[in-house]
Design brief:
The protein has about 200 residues and is of the alpha/beta class. The protein is about 50% helix and about 15% strand. It has 9 helices and 5 strands. Strands 2-3-1-4-5 form a 5-stranded parallel sheet, sandwiched between helices. Helix 2 packs across helix 4, helix 4 packs parallel to helix 8 and helix 7 crosses helix 8. The structure holds 2'-deoxycytidine-5'-monophosphate. The site of 2'-deoxycytidine-5'-monophosphate (DC) has 15 residues, from helix 2, helix 4 and helix 8.
């Protein structure tokens, strides 16, 4: 196997890209970076009173762990700070050097195939219908004891998607050369199998 191999996985919230990214990284023995955590960590610091740009520049790996990054409030805060050019710029080098690390790397986010790693060896764009995504996220949140209705989750998700897709800089979108994977009617195993097949096809023989 080549020393460097980059897989870019983009798509909207709760489409399954996190689960698929972890599973394919494990399958191929690649490192995995959930780039949403970078924005969530900045968002959380901003909710606690920090300046977004300073928070992004001072981010450490230790900021990326902790259950409080997975709440709906932090997700919205992440999406809001993600509009800011200085914040995105501060996070570029960390993501690119992760992608170039030894062995393969899987990065998932919104702009990996288009902006962070336009030269990625394999690009996937993972989607699912709004209703399916909201149902999945609602189950995940209520399973963690977060009290929210499915309708609230759907609303919150649509606000976030339109902000993420509508921003000027690095908007969420599929790269022209991305393989589209709609997981609406797929089990986790079936979606993962399709992602593995797409990556396998991109590996050197
Ligand atoms: O993947 P996630 O839901 O954890 O991402 C949280 C927010 O972070 C998302 O709504 C927009 C932002 N984000 C981004 O702008 N670019 C990325 N590569 C990843 C996330």
């Amino acid at each position: 196997m080549r020393v460097q191999f980059t897989v870019a996985i983009d798509g909207p919230a709760a489409a399954g890209k996190g689960t698929i990214s972890k599973a394919v990284a494990q399958h191929f023995g690649f490192a995995h970076l959930d780039t949403g955590l970078l924005y969530r960590a900045v968002g959380l610091k901003v909710l606690n009173g920090a300046d977004p740009t300073q928070a992004a520049r001072a981010l450490t790996p230790g900021d990326l762990t902790g259950g409080d990054l997975r709440t709906p409030d932090v997700a919205q805060a992440a999406s809001r700070v993600a509009i800011l050019p200085e914040v995105r710029q501060a996070l570029v080098d960390f993501q690119r050097s992760f992608a170039r690390g030894p062995g393969g790397a899987v990065l998932d986010g919104r702009d990996i195939g288009t902006v962070i790693c336009p030269e990625a060896d394999v690009k996937l764009y993972v989607t699912a219908s709004d209703e399916v995504r909201a149902h999945r996220r609602w189950k995940e949140l209520t399973g963690k004891g977060i009290d929210v209705t499915e309708a609230e989750v759907l609303d919150e998700m649509r606000i976030r998607d339109s902000r993420d897709a509508g921003r000027d800089l690095a908007p969420m979108r599929a790269a022209a050369d991305a393989v589209l994977l709609d997981t609406s009617a797929l089990s986790i195993d079936a979606a993962t199998a399709q992602a593995i097949a797409a990556i396998q096809a991109g590996l050197p023989a």
